[in-house]
Amino acid sequence: MPPTRTSQPDGAGASYASAGVDIDAGERAVDALRPHAEKAGRPEVMGGIGGFAGLFALKMNRYSEPVLASSTDGVGTKVAIAQALDKHDTIGLDLVAMVVDDLVVCGAEPLFLQDYIAVGKVVPEQIATIVKGIADGCQQAGCALLGGETAEHPGLMEAGAYDVSGTGVGIVEADAMLRPDRVRPGDVLLALGSSGLHSNGYSLARHVLLDIARMPLEGHVEEFGHTLGEELLAPTRIYARDCLALTAETGVRMFAHITGGGLARNLERVLPDGVDAVVERGTWTPAPVFKMIATRGRVERAEMEQTFNMGVGMVAVLPADDVDRALAVLTARHVPAWVLGEVRRSKGKSARKVHMKGDHPRF
User: Fold this and answer.
1) How far is residue 344 from each of residues 112, 176, 274, 353, measured CA to CA in Å?
2) Where does the PurM-like C-terminal domain start and stop, copy by copy (predicted)?
3) CA nearest 192: which of 38, 340, 315, 343?
4) Half-sphere exposure of residue 36, counting CA atoms within 13 Å on the CB side?
C-alpha cells in the first residue's frame, strides 16, 4: 500500500494542525467551559479563567498557625466506562471527590482544585461537559476551581480517549489538625456509606462484568433497578463538608478515606502503634454490585476487600461519647452512617492491625 497522505496540501510544510493538534479547538473548549468553571469560586479567588496561573488570596488574619494540605489523584479506569457510553458529566464529580476527600482526612478545609485533562483529540463540547462535572463537584465540596490544563495528545491517545487528574489544596490550623496519635483505645469506628464502587477497582470490575460475564453496559439489571452502565458511573460521594461538620460538632480523632486497598489497609494508615481496629462485617450489607462482582467472577473475599470499599467510603474515628451526636449530624446531612467497630489496645506483638470479624448479612 502507498504511504498514508497527511492533511496538508501538496507543497505545504508541516504544521501543528497536520500533526493532529487543533489550537483553535482548544480555544473553543476554553470558551465553552468558562461559564461552568466560573461558578465554582470563592471570595479569595483573584482573576479568572485563561491566565497563566490561578491566584488565591489567603486571608492570613483568619488563622493562627495555618498548615497547607495538598492532594493529587485521578479516577483510574472508570473513564473507560464514561467513554464507552459517551457520558462524561459525572467523571468530574469523581475527580473532585478523590482529591478533596483525601484532604479532609487531616481536618483540612479544601480551598481550591486544579485539573488536568489529557485527550486524544479536543472536542470542545466534551471538555466542557467534563469541566462542568468538576465545577459541580467543587461547589459541593466548597472549594474553588482555580483553573487547569487541557492537553491534546495525537498519536499517543486515540480520538475520544481521555484521562483526568487533579490537585487540591486545603488548610487547617496546626492545633486542630487530625493525626493518628490522637486515636485512643475505646474509640469507635463510624462508617459513612459509599455510593457504590466510587473510583477504585474498575479494572477488576470491568474484567468480571464485561469480559467474563459479558454484561452489556446498556442492559437493565434487576438487582440495581437501572442499567449496568448507570451503576458503574454512579458518582463518588463527596464527604468533605460532612467531615468538616463532624469536626466542628464532635471530638473526631481521625478520618480514613476508603479507596484502593480497602477498609483494612486504609484504616491501618490512621492508627498509631499500640492499637488495633476491629471491624464487624455484620453491621452492614454491601450494595448488590459488590456481590455481583464476587459471584460472577468467583472473586475471593480477601480480594474483594482489598480492592473495593465494600460499601464504606469514609470512616470516622471518634470517642464513644460522641457517637450519638455524630450520627445525628450525618443523618441531618443525609449521609448513611453506622457504628462499624472499635479501637482496642494491641495484644502481644500486634501493632496497627485491622481485624475483620464475622460475615456480611445476605452477602
Assistant:
1) 37, 24, 9, 10
2) 184-349
3) 315
4) 22
Q: Is the CB of residue 101 less than 8 Å from the CB of residue 134? A: no
Ordered by start, the domain boundaries in the chain are: 22-46+64-173, 180-357
Torsion of CA 135, 140, 143, 148, to 10 degrees: -20
Q: Which CATH superfamily is domain 180-357 in?
A: PurM-like C-terminal domain (3.90.650.10)
Q: What is the DSSP letter of 67?
A: E
The correct answer on CATH 3.30.1330.10 for the domain covering 22-46+64-173 is yes
Cβ neighbours of 341 (radius 10 Å): 22
Contact residues for 351 (Cβ-Cβ < 8 A; gap 6+): 273, 274, 276
pLDDT at 28: 67
**What is the three-class DSSP state of 170?**
strand
Joined grid coordinates for residue 303: 480480594
pLDDT tens, residue by residue, 40-89 = 678 888 876 666 788 888 888 889 999 999 999 999 999 999 999 999 99
User: Average pLDDT of the chain?
Assistant: 90
Kindly report, residue by residue over 307-349, the tens digit of the pLDDT: 999 999 999 999 999 999 999 999 999 999 999 999 999 986 6
Tell me the Ramachandran region of residue 91: left when phi exceeds 0, alpha when psi lies from -120 to 50, beta otherwise: alpha
Count of CB atoms within 10 A of residue 262's CB? 23
Residues 141, 92 contacting (CB under 8 angstroms): no
Residues 6+ apart with CB under 8 A from 273: 346, 351, 352
